[in-house]
Amino acid sequence: MSITFHWRAALLLAAGLLGGCGPSYTYRYSPPPSQHGMQCISACSQQRNYCGQLARMQDNANQALYQSEMRSYQYCQQGKSKKDARRSCYYPSYPYSAGLSSDCGREYDQCYQGCGGTIHRILNKD
């Protein structure tokens, strides 16, 4: 088999895998008609911004903690055999923040709808 055939097969496989990702959507936000509803949505926006700031701060704290624990692990390994290091040195796992910023978006959407706004999901025709 030729190299060209392998490349074509790889490209077809990649296209097939990417094509199977499912439909994509766009969301259209329609605000409520009242002034009170608009003020409510403004409060939702402020809350989303605050939530995003907290999520970024949590990510930074998690990263700093991980780096500190990794330095501790590397220090623990010094002068030890691999076997001894495995027994006595704790290898840190990264404390991923499980989608805090996506939680902010979901909370915003709930708040937006609670204020009387509507969110329309539109299927993208590709």
Describe the structure concisely for a colleague.
The chain has 126 residues and is mainly alpha-helical. 65% of the residues lie in helices and 10% in strands.
List the uncertain runs: none
Outline, from the CA principal axes? elongated
Distance between the termini: 34 Å
Beta-strand residue percentage: 5-15%
Trace the largest sheet across and list its strands.
1-2
Residues in helix, % = 55-70%
| Beta strands, count | 2
* Tally of contiguous helical segments: 4
Oligomer category: single chain
Radius of gyration: 25 Å
Organism: Pseudomonas qingdaonensis
Protein name: Lipoprotein
Key features?
single chain, 126 residues, mainly alpha, two-stranded antiparallel sheet, 4 helices, 2 strands, 65% helix, elongated
Structure description:
The protein is mainly alpha-helical and 126 residues long. The protein has four helices and two strands. The two termini are 34 Å apart.
Strands, helices and their partners?
Blueprint: H1 3-19, E1 25-30, H2 35-77, H3 82-88, H4 100-114, E2 118-123
Helix pairs in contact: 2-4
